## 1
Amino acid sequence: MIVLLLQWSFLFLISGSLGGFVLHHAAKELGDGPRFFLAHWLGLFLWGNLLLWCTPFTPLSPLMILLPAGVSLALISHPPLRHRLPPKIDIWLSLPLLAAMLAYGLKIPTTSDAISYQYDIHAWLSNVGTVPGLALIHTRFGFLSSWFTLPALFNHGPLEGRMTASVGAFAAFFTCLQVLWALRRALQGTLPAPHLIATAALALAMFPTIALNLAAGPSHDVPIVILSVLCFWTLLLRNREEMEMLPILFASLALATKLSSLPLLAVCGLCGLLQARQPFRYACRAAMLVTLLMLPWVLNQVLLTGWPFYPLGISLNLPWSLSQEVREIEIQFVRDYAPWGHGETLGLPARMFKWLREDYTRLISTGYLLMGLVGMLALHLRGNRAGLKATPLFLGIAGVSFWLWTTAHPRFGWGVIAILPTAWLWTRNWSRPLFPRLPPGARDGLAGLAVFLFLALPPHLWTTGTQRLVWEAIHRGDIPAPGSRVWSPPTIPAIQYTDSPPWVVPHQPTIIQYNELPLSQRPMYFPLDLRYELQFRNPERGLRGGVVIMATLPEYF
């Protein structure tokens, strides 16, 4: 817990100063509260994006924290760039929230993606950096994200394997802090509608992510959830020319995090182009910004897979490029989550019903969609068409359409789905305080209670299926129980999922000498599915020089 608190302090300092510096030039008219939260979100994602420039040349080490930390101290000491905690967040409310979310950050990451490839990506980035042809060893290593660079900075020495969930938990804590701030001001009637709507969307989007413990892990679906809402928020605020680049900025950062955020960039760019006073000038500035933020990600993708936009686009046919067959297998694997992608003989209504029954998080997503339709109907009945047109609800509609078309797995769409239910907030009058007869202290307590009930407590009460399997294995003694968490979070368990009881078994890192390729140098918790005969690209440099294909193994295709 002590290490986690120190890491969050670094994240808080660096993200706030970096994002505050950008917002000082991009949105001078924002109030203190919105500026504070937007600055930290922006700085967190910008820092991860900047680290992507380093990974092709050097491993990520803790020493890389010192320079941005020093720059951050210099920035926050500059009077024009100072921004402090919003004065309406009291210590007596925020400290218990911090304690609750620190406990949340000490959970064991047990999602299959975390154990199968995301933790290993942290290890590669922290020990070697970006390796040309790494996706040939494990195809999932081709899904690099700027989100993975932040935990990799701390993945060293006694902390190796323990900081996997730290950044996701920090995002969960900061979400709760923003919701607490917004609830307090909404109860007082002093929160402008754009900030209320955006925070409501963030709460709806992050609730299943936090409650189902997805944020207690390295998943890069968590930042996409947040960035979807941030694009929505900045589109709501885009009433001044000086703020016109903020939506495209957040959309570009989202695309450098995961390609599933492509609709965010398309909608933000289109809205900006249609509303810009000088469309050509806006298009040039937006193109330069997108190129600058996407270039390090594209460079890493080329090195890892030989595809600039893997698994989309075309291959560059490099010696380490993944084959077209592998790319199609990966795309189909994702699309099989959709109710119309299973190739079953059932009719579409039966498949949809089966899809809903398999995972109750899909019921949450469906409920959000229905709430969005009700909200838009309420707007229409109240004649508030102007308000409906003024809000960028098209972002939610386009995002949900893309989500349904590609995967329809709930965790890929919570961010854009949560935008739709907030439409009904336009029908409310927030100029007067709620519960005006309650004293201010009671309203503050009500806001704090709401945050704990809806965002802080569920993660400690709900248990996912994978967590249940892991804890059963711990109780049986099959895998070791986590030790004391006072100093640092627990290490990720070395487990393997099986198709028969006991379902979870301990897994020893596989020692493979495959064409003189010592894969035992990296922690591999899942059996490797090697599809190629490989060799070192530069034998003198070993793994740092990358790997190339000698021949394709036909039995895999």
## 2
Amino acid sequence: MAAKLAVGYTLDELTNDITGVTPASFEPTIDYVVTKIPRFTFEKFPGTEALLTSSMKSVGEAMAIGRTFAESLQKGLRSMETGLTGLNEVEIKGGKKGMLEALAQPRPDRVLVIAQAFRAGLTRGEIQKASRYDPWFLEQIGMIVAAEAGVIENGLPDDAPGLLGLKMLGFSDDRLGELAGVSPSTVAAKRRELSVTPVYKRVDTCAAEFPSQTSYMYSAYEGDGMGAPECEAEPSGRPKVVILGGGPNRIGQGIEFDYCCCHAAYALKEMGLEAIMVNCNPETVSTDYDTSDRLYFEPLCAEDVIELIRVEQSNGDFRGVIVQLGGQTPLNLSRALEAAGIPILGTSPDAIDLAEDRQRFQVLLKDLGLKQPRNGLARSQAEAEKVAAAIGYPLVIRPSYVLGGRAMEIVHDLSALKRYMAEAVRVSGKSPVLLDSYLQDAIEVDVDAIADGKDVYVAGIMQHIEEAGIHSGDSACSLPPYSLGDDVIAEMERQTAILAGALGVVGLMNVQYAIKGGDIYILEVNPRASRTVPFVAKATGVPVAKIAARVMAGEALASFGLPKAAAQNGHVAVKEAVFPFARFPGVDILLGPEMKSTGEVMGIDADFGRAFAKSQLGAGNGLPMAGTVFISVKDKDKDAAAVVAKGLAGLGFDLLATGGTQAFLAAKGLQVKRVNKVLDGAPHCVDAITEGGVQLVINTTEGAQAIADSYSIRRSALVHNIPHYTTMAGAQAALLAIEAMAQGSLEVAPLQAYFEKSF
């Protein structure tokens, strides 16, 4: 609409797309309440205080629609996917004084603190004075807390009006079960017994004055519990498929999955199927009302999804649900959907579980004769210590059923293992935690593939630039691989096909390999869309997500006439991660197995060096063409550092290094100026960085003490926007990029120029 106004249209000349009959100048009237809640991931950045300031720290958001604020708020809270089922209890220490102090803090969970304050007996006036919240909002939260108290005291109502009244306040079955001390299934059964089910209303912008031509819907509980309220869903009689989106963006699960869901909707419509989208993220294209045929703006919770599917099943040919494309969120619902008798398209829930459960997957790999790093399983600290004693340190701890490397960490000693196991077990729940031997200096590779139960197409093989142990979402990568031999690539293709067949994959699959000493190890297999799917599609010109959706809907892979994966049309694409470290004071920028990036960019060109240079420019890491390079690396990296330093010196850069590194480089015949470490006193390396005397930083380290000692180097480079590399692989790639730029300016071409046909 804004684009049309910008080129000269006026509002009265344009039609409202929602109603299809009113002009865009028609003043909107809404009969619903929309609540948007930011999504935070402070747990990803230990060391920074979980407080809100004028610098944005949220990494996504959820949106909910209801007929009342209370209904909308509680739907929004459970849409966040942070374990909330509503206004859940939070622990506030220090009695009334501690409660008032917590209310005064700009905490991301302050709405929960307010609810807890009401439970503790504080008055609305006391809460308002401490929190500065508008009294109307406090009244609404107090009303919800009062309703909770009634359920705790009296249990679930036995009559339809009473239960309907609670559902009209937005209470989920899960939350009511917690309050009444019964299971969510008991609450759901009672609801159905009393015929208390949601109806669906349309977002029409005119309070139902005109019928909406767009199927954009939300659930609500209405009526008096006696007669049936009006439902505006009007499910069609067409063959249909439901696509579950990714929910609120967060680190590890963002717009890459929204991309997949959107392309699935386009593909299904091309097949003549009705595409029905379910999502709760206002930022994404999947929740545009014209992306799919029908849109349900709903929490991605079992209760909400099952209820809307029941409505869609009431008319037409319901084919099933696609859960592979929205990241971990839909996968976590697959078991509940299957238990409800709802068909899952593509890979079966059992196959998903086989790959996600560390113990079952370990057994599968042994049966297939495929390698994993030395590992063991643990469900307790004692078991973990036993495994660690057998394998040795360092270890990578991997909980089950996580996305974005949540709660994964490299531990170097027993004290770190003891500290960490409590968190790992909590995240993994009843499923086992995997303790992997950490493959130092290994090359990590991501492989994306499509399978139809018979054939397997390897869509993309991406070599990570950072070494194994850094989360794939945080590592820069190259497609095609820039240093792997054809025999290694062929073997990974073979193993990928074996895994797809053993898991019975129908749709997308991602495999993460580590290559060390000629051996290929399997780190993880994800029978779903990976965050690299959009990158692979743009790098190869193959619409990976669209094809996968059509395969899940029943088409044969062979019918698409796909090219051999190795054919790359003579170009290289590099993906680079973008990080939010500058927004989190005190956070270290060192990367590890838990993902921290909030976005990514892509560079594409005729060779690796130029493509990497473009990726760095896109990520805001403009590489210098002259100046001083500061180098401080761990002992095992010194040989590689000498090669990089020689290359940079040959390009005219001055070299600056701390004691051990300086002595080593000087012994190799390089002219290197020595500078103090911070611990040795001023003037030291951080002074050189902050005073503008350094244009590029190469700093690698290991061990808890060394990491702590070099923190100020990395943080200073970040604050002063100086390109810095914390792995030698990254530094080597930077050298290639600088060499490429020194040979001539980078050229610009549209993406379509790299392919014979548009996709």
## 3
Amino acid sequence: MDFLSTGLQEFGRRLRRQKLRRSLGQARKRLAQAESDLGALTLPTLAGRAELPPEVEQARRKALELDGEIERTSAAIVELEAELASIRGRENAAVRAAEERTASSQADEAALRQQQLELRKGAETSAALGVPGKTAFVNLHEAEKSAAQAAAEAQQSRRTAVTEATRSVAEIHQRLVPLRLDLARLRQAQRQPLRELGAVLGRFESLAPAEAGLALERRREALRQINSLEERLEGLKHLSSAADPQNVRLSIFLFVSLATIVGLTLLLIFRAPPSRDWLPADSQIVSAFHLPRLQAAGAANRESAWNAVWRDAADTLGPYPTLAGPAPEVRRVVIALGESKGDAGSLYRLVEMNGAAADVIAGLNEKHGFGMRYDSKSLGGLGIAERNAATACAQIGYSTLALGETASVSQMIRVRLGLAPDLKIEELFFTKFQRLDRGSAIRLITRQPRELVTASGEPIIAPDLAERSGLLGIAAYPGDPIVLVLLFGTKNDAASNRLAAFFAEAPARHLRLQGAGAEANILAIEQRDSSLECRLTLNEAAAREFLPRLGGARLQRQ
């Protein structure tokens, strides 16, 4: 068993070498930082010196060239930021002026309405005295009409000012972002010539100013550490070269074999992918409702913008007494629509619990009209709790239930047992979509964005946007304001670039936001290969219009 001892010793030496390499890398970083600091401190003092050594003069010129570029880029950034602040100031001033005009017009309208009331009270007296009052009423009506028109013009002026400011800010950002990137690149590039200058000054310490003494000492200490670590590495390499290579190979073979066996065992234990829902392959649209987050957003309140989404999720649980309410143990409700079979498609419903789903099945007894049925031949012996053909329930995981019609529940059981194919979506896009579950109240994904409509048949997004994407994911996050994230899958990078530019033009129009005051503001647009992520905010009016459409999403049937 000497080969095991030799192998363990060599394994320990390799670990120590790895640790020494990390320490050596950190020491080299400290050396680079000390040399950069030394160069930065010494550079201003070299300007007035004559007959500098050639190495010092060459390093100084490189650093000065980058200094000039950094100053010019910084000046351009300061100028654009000042212009940006000026635009914001003009926008705020225009908005305040419009609000003052609106308030003044509303006050005038209130005063005119009060005068109309007073005229009506005195109408009978005026008629009895023979004084005509019609002219006064006409004048007041015209004045009230003028006040209302002034208020409308003030609101239009406010919208115009905000739109122009937004466009100007976007144009400035398009110029500002490349400059900031250039500045960061230049500052990063400046480190190399400064480090070269510091390394040269290490040989000409007399040229360094007095304030650079600490940087010089740090450089000397880093060099001492590097030399010490390199000596220790050489010693370990010498010990490794003296070890019997045959014993080392035998021990490595044994360790690799054990690791392979353990890895295969773990793979067999955890072979089921935890990130997938057990939905059939014909699912064309999948909606996931996170009930605790909806409850935290006050969705159960009828006044909430989330209330329509809450009802869509709660209606799914209504026929099942142990889930209705909904039950506090319910964490997530998933609704999937399958391919068309006649006039309607298959509807698959999954419920994810916080605890064991077996307790829900056990509570559905004859008192509630449910009976248990087992089918060993086609369903592997898994039980289905049935009330009738339209209301059934089955446990397909420790905390997962399948709900709905008996045919749909049976199909989800077959998918869980591997007897039928499950839903597969392009892996990178699906992984990104799964990350949206962190904090979102509702998520949706479909391969057919062109056919995505509300329960009343109205398109959820503009058709010209849907036609540019072959895969669409949407997630909504509760908050103030509400955040909406749209994921698009396109054919290639070029299509993703075109879609990003097209969506950024008018996000409110693409989301079909037509209500009074409905606004959508883009936070960020991120492109990665052929996928596109658009993150934007919805104000209260936009949320009340869009969220009910999203919760009741369906596919248009031809």
